[in-house]
Design a protein that fits this description.
The chain contains 27 helices and 25 strands. It is α/β, with parallel strands linked by helices. A hairpin with an 8-residue loop joins strand 1 and strand 2. It binds ligand MGD (2 copies), iron/sulfur cluster and molybdenum atom. The site of molybdenum atom has 3 residues, from loops.
């Protein structure tokens, strides 16, 4: 046996842990964490362990295939990659010539390492922005307001766990959602005494360990954050120096939040008034305090305004870019800069030709301001119906995205996909939507591809990572980078001069990063080093705003129009928001709309679970045995009232549809709230003899409507909707 050890990166979640893959020929014999990865420190989770099962799985897509029978008939014929590229390219030309560039979409789910090149790819065929993606529900309601208020993005990447004395997990559960990136340093920090506050409607594993757990009513974080601001001001706990010198609009804001007493907040949020005060004291008295936040506060019809209130709260604490606080990192800007994405060129041409991105009229902030087409408008345009659109959508290629599982109102999404002229899916496995595609393309798994990471989420020291492939993909699987390069070359060769993803990665590093240690670095040296640190760790400068290092023009202050933290926010105002952070009650709780009087349980969907990543992995035995069946968390009182016992199969329903699940009776949720995890248990697991539930039967998005949604941005109520539950009659 000749064992080889390859250092690579696990791409089964955003944590992107460092991994050492042991192989014997094409066989993966062992997978272990790389102790030298500066964030994951040798940790990995249950998902990485199944790399061998995924690599060897008999159902992997292996070759490009085209449909030969009717849609959904399962009749496919193998084709070459060249034929696949030519077909896609020719279809694009044909459709774009008739309807304009936006009529051909490339969808992406979670970022899989090529966001920057994805933007360049869209620009290469004339589209400025995202044609179809999940940004309307994913992290933007959290990070976007940070950018508008502080001038920099943050979700959990600014979380300075190495130096914080207190940490707030606000609408995030990193033990399940970002294990490798957050937990190793989190445990180190806890060992040295860091306090923990968890703000979550569910009693999560981390809430169980927290010093304070605020069990909030879903969708009411805006009220909580404003109340916390008011406490800071009333008790004179806020950072005077920071507020006076670096914030804009404080006087008006202080007046604006006066109404938010802890007692009023308790009525709105269910969080006991004294606990809110206690939490604020802990944040200020045990500082520096840091924060990790993700989609818990944002996936509501008031998501953006909630994010705005949270950003205001952290500004008043003064912990921004302070050691142990919420650092300002550079990789988001590097990912989005025009030299990389070529978006400005595309934007100019697109508007000169009279196009507007789909949804610009109904969601001006998302589609108009941020250049992300509103999915609802895109799906409507696939059917050629409603939406005030200026072009139909006729072609779609999905890359790491399963639309019927990911977007709200699955039935509507499926019907829309069936209206397409051309639909192609690139994935590791066949998926529910893929069964109805016209073309399938096989993807190389992360153990089977050279990988590159320089975007999203690595906290300090924010490494730039180059990873090696450990084994060959089965058949002719290709990475998404190789795919975009091959098509990019056909579409706009001058923007795609590279021969392979290594060259693309090297270009990224040389063009966009400073690395004086070795300015002539080669890809071999990058691979040898594995993790390059360009601005974090020992090189980190805190409080850059005081040193003229935060703004590109070298002036003091933040990257906002006023140079200050903008509590009064003309940027958000220009998209129709109140210029001061304001709480809007979700439509779910409007008695006139009557949602809860018809379906009385508040429904949270999509909470991350340990073994799964979105809709993937129900076919993988090592994952499926951890959570074999779909489940819904329901409180004993709510279960008894409905004659439901733990483990019973139930229907969960509302006027959008119904799904099957097993009751998990638990006090982890409030009696008025139920929670379904993200997965849809879509595929069967043959090895364990467990069934798959297909597109609709256990998919929470079957019962999430497209409306109500956030008025200008479009987030749907995936974490605050309504349902009723009843025991299934055998
Ligand atoms: N109800 C509800 N819906 C949600 C959410 C929720 O909380 N609740 N969360 C939303 C959020 S935040 C997001 S980001 C979306 C995510 O949604 P998506 O990212 O669309 O997730 P999936 O639907 O699982 O699609 C991912 C597919 O990509 C494949 N895949 C994995 N890695 C790769 C790769 O490297 N290359 C290729 N080509 N394929 C790959 C997997 O096999 C899987 O079939 O879901 C959203 N939908
Ligand atoms: N294992 C696994 N990891 C993943 C993913 C996955 O599918 N599986 N998906 C990845 C992606 S794309 C994303 S965007 C991230 C998301 O990462 P997280 O934000 O951590 O995801 P969730 O578990 O959906 O939501 C976090 C917490 O928010 C709580 N919550 C629900 N409603 C509210 C509310 O109104 N207020 C507050 N304060 N909290 C609320 C939920 O109970 C949950 O515990 O996870 C990433 N990591
Ligand atoms: S936490 Fe788990 S799934 Fe995520 S990157 Fe690390 S090993 Fe992979
Ligand atoms: Mo996401």
């Amino acid at each position: 046996m000749t064992e080889k050890v390859t250092r690579t990166i696990c791409f089964d979640c955003h944590a992107k842990c460092g991994i050492l893959v042991h192989t014997d020929g094409d066989k993966i014999t062992k997978v272990e964490g790389d102790p030298n990865h500066p964030n994951s420190l040798g940790m990995l989770c249950c998902k990485a362990f199944s790399a061998a099962q995924i690599h060897e799985h008999p159902d992997r897509l292996k070759y490009p295939m085209k449909r030969v029978g009717p849609r959904g008939s399962g009749q496919w014929e193998r084709i070459t990659w060249d034929e696949a590229y030519d077909t896609i390219y020719n279809k694009m030309q044909e459709i774009i010539a008739k309807h304009g560039p936006g009529s051909f979409c490339f969808s992406q789910g979670t970022g899989r390492g090529w966001n920057h090149f994805h933007f360049r790819f869209s620009a290469s065929y004339g589209v400025p922005g995202t044609t179809l993606g999940v940004s309307h529900v994913c992290l933007f309601p959290v990070i976007g307001p940070c950018m508008f208020v502080w001038g920099y993005y943050n979700a959990l990447d600014g979380c300075d766990l190495d130096h914080a004395n207190c940490c707030v997990h606000w609408g995030i559960n990193p033990a399940t959602s970002f294990p490798g990136i957050h937990m190793p340093k989190f445990f180190q920090a806890r060992k040295r005494g860091m306090k923990l506050i968890v703000i979550d409607p569910r009693f999560t594993d981390l809430a169980a360990k927290a010093d304070i757990w605020l069990q909030i009513k879903p969708g009411t974080d805006g009220a909580l954050a404003l109340t916390m601001c008011n406490i800071l001001i009333q008790e004179d706990l806020y950072d005077h120096e920071f507020v006076e010198n670096w914030c804009y609009g404080f006087e008006e804001f202080a007046e604006h939040v006066k109404e938010w007493t802890p007692e009023r907040c308790e009525e709105e949020t269910w969080v006991p008034a004294d606990k809110i005060v206690e939490a604020v004291h802990m944040i200020m008295e045990n500082g520096p305090t840091t924060e990790a936040a993700m989609i818990g506060t944002g996936m509501h019809d008031n998501g953006i305004t909630n994010g705005f209130t949270l950003a205001a709260f952290w500004a008043l604490t003064g912990y921004l870019d302070r050691k142990g606080g919420i650092t300002s990192n550079e990789f988001w800007d590097r990912m989005l800069q025009n030299e990389m994405t070529k978006q400005d060129e595309a934007r100019k041409e697109f508007s000169e030709n009279g196009y507007r991105l789909l949804g610009s009229d109904i969601k001006p902030f998302l589609a108009g301001g941020l250049s992300i087409q509103y999915p609802r408008a895109v799906f409507a345009a696939m059917k050629g119906t409603e939406g005030g659109d200026n072009y139909p959508v006729r072609g779609l290629v999905t890359v790491a995205n399963d639309p019927v599982m990911a977007f709200e109102d699955s039935q509507e999404v499926f019907d829309s996909l069936m209206g397409l002229e051309f639909f192609c899916m690139k994935d590791y496995f066949m998926t529910p939507s893929g069964r109805y595609a016209d073309m399938l393309l096989p993807s190389a798994h992360w153990v089977e591809r050279d990988d590159q990471v320089d975007e999203e989420f690595y906290m300090d020291p924010c490494p730039f990572v180059t990873a090696d492939k450990a084994v060959d993909p089965p058949g002719e699987g290709k990475s998404d980078w190789e795919f975009s390069l091959a098509l990019g070359k056909r579409l706009k060769p001058e923007w795609w001069p590279w021969e392979n993803s290594d060259e693309m990665h090297l270009y990224r590093f040389k063009e966009f990063y400073d690395y004086p240690e070795n300015p002539d670095i080669t890809i071999e040296e990058m691979r040898e080093a594995g993790y390059l640190i360009t601005a974090g760790g020992d090189k980190r400068v805190y409080e850059k705003y005081r040193k003229g290092l935060e703004r590109p023009d070298g002036k003091l202050g933040f990257r906002t129009p006023s140079g200050r933290i903008e509590l009064w926010n003309s940027g958000l105002q220009s998209y129709g928001y109140d210029p001061l952070p304001t709480y809007y009650r979700s439509q779910l709780y409007d008695p006139d709309r009557g949602f809860l009087s018809r379906y009385p349980l508040i429904l949270i969907t999509g909470c991350r679970d340990y073994p799964y990543y979105h809709s993937a992995w129900s076919n993988i035995p090592m994952q499926r045995e951890i959570e074999p069946d779909p489940y819904v968390e329901i409180h004993p009182e709510a279960a008894i009232a409905r004659g439901i016992s733990d483990g019973d199969w139930v229907w969960i329903f509302n006027n959008t549809g119904r799904i099957k699940s097993r009751a998990r009776v638990t006090k982890a949720v409030d009696p008025r709230v139920v929670s379904i995890p993200r997965l849809g248990w879509k595929e069967a697991c043959k090895e364990l003899g467990l069934q798959g539930f297909g597109m609709f039967d256990a998919n929470p998005n079957t019962i999430i409507p497209q409306e109500p949604s956030e008025p200008k941005y479009g987030t749907s109520s995936m974490k605050s909707w309504c349902c009723e539950i009843e025991r299934m009659v055998d």
